[in-house]
Amino acid sequence: MFSPAKLNLGLSVVGRRADGYHLLESLFWPVNWGDEITFDYKPDAPGKSSFHIKYEWDISAPFLEPALFQEDSTLISQVLRSLELPTDLAGLDIRVKKKIPIGSGLGGISSNVGTVLRFLVEKGALPQKQACISALKSGADIPFFLDPRPSWISGIGEEIYPLDLSPEIKKRLCFILFCFSFSIPTPFLFAEFRTVFPQLETASHSRSLTGYVSTDSFLEFLSSTQNDLEFLAVRHFPVIGTLLELLRKSGVLYAGLSGTGPTCFAVFDDYEKRDKIAKDLVKKIRDLPCRSVLADSY
């Protein structure tokens, strides 16, 4: 099964709950670049359900480090242990070939867990409702990956509103992703945000995109959105600012940071222009610790 990366087309921090969790608004956009998960099991194997998990880097991954967690150390394992799986899944082997860098702001680990839960639902081994509950308990981004499609996300990530997009948008939209060789831990950046805005109060908020989204309204949204965490990422990693400046000078529809970063990306509505700019940028970023990836909508 394919386990897609997601981009944040804008990210607004609109409040903070009493328990310290930040309330967010963001447009989550899955792309056709990501990890691959292979499931192998013996339905006739007797005994109690068990599982084995192996992570490895795909040879085409932008970076082949750091070392990947295995077996009981993985979030997949933690989630599976919390579930009552049927015994006909005895000996379940899960192999994850990763392309998405760790801590890249692309939701890679959340996507892996969501994809495993989706597999269990499709095989009838887990009710959809239980998969949703487990996903929400395990991580804020995971529920999105139970059904990854362009969606407006709010709350701490649990409020998901799939968009009814003009067919032209998904047909024309394409991306360049720039993955860096370092990671930015999400808790670190939000802790920094808390020190900058210690009095951020819980806010009521409404969706910026809802229902049917025309091409014009989508382009208008892109022209005005931003990532509220970008300035902090740039403060600690100036190379991110250098890259974003290059992208924004290239005449793209939108350029920004995905999630807490460090992945940067640019949005285009023309494949030929995307490919030309990608070719030009490869020369300019030669000395930066990043690799470029071309992607379309998933």
List keywords for this structure.
Ribosomal Protein S5, domain 2; 28% strand; Alpha-Beta Plaits; single chain; four-stranded antiparallel beta sheet; alpha+beta
Describe the structure in your own words:
Helix 7 (230-236) crosses helix 8 (238-248). Strands 1, 2, 3, 4, 5 and 6 form a 6-stranded mixed β-sheet that branches. Strands 10-11-8-12 form a 4-stranded antiparallel β-sheet. A two-stranded parallel ribbon has the order 7-9. The chain has helices at 75-81, 108-122, 128-138, 167-172, 186-196, 215-224, 230-236, 238-248, 271-284; strands at residues 2-16, 22-40, 51-57, 92-98, 151-155, 159-162, 164-165, 174-180, 212-213, 254-257, 264-268, 290-296. The longest helix has 15 residues, at 108-122. The chain is α+β, with helices and mostly antiparallel strands and 298 residues long. It contains 9 helices and 12 strands. The protein is globular. It is 31% helix and 28% strand. Strand 5 and strand 6 (159-162) form a beta hairpin. It has 2 domains: 2-160, Ribosomal Protein S5, domain 2; 164-296, 2-Layer Sandwich (Alpha-Beta Plaits), CATH 3.30.70.
